[in-house]
Amino acid sequence: MDIEHGLRGPADRHRPLLPADHEEHGQTPDRVEIIAKGITLALIASGYARENILVAQSLAITVIVVDVAVIATALAIIISINRHTKSLDVRKLTKLKG
To answer: Considering the domain boundaries, does residue 10 fall inside one?
Structure first.
């Protein structure tokens, strides 16, 4: 890995990480994930600054557990949709209306 170019190759050094049309192709960055990581880091840093690291670590672990529960629930919904429609095509979700 070239230190000057990081993880991208030399041909990519002038290209932005996210092209201007990234939202059209479904490649939007997961902003919620970035915010959750920032909150976890802030909890740990504030606990360290206040010399109460155990409470901060407990809260950070709680944030991580809730995040995993949300991901597991979303995955369960996706699996259920795939079983009912035999596809992950969004247009076929109208059959699931009650």
So the answer is: no
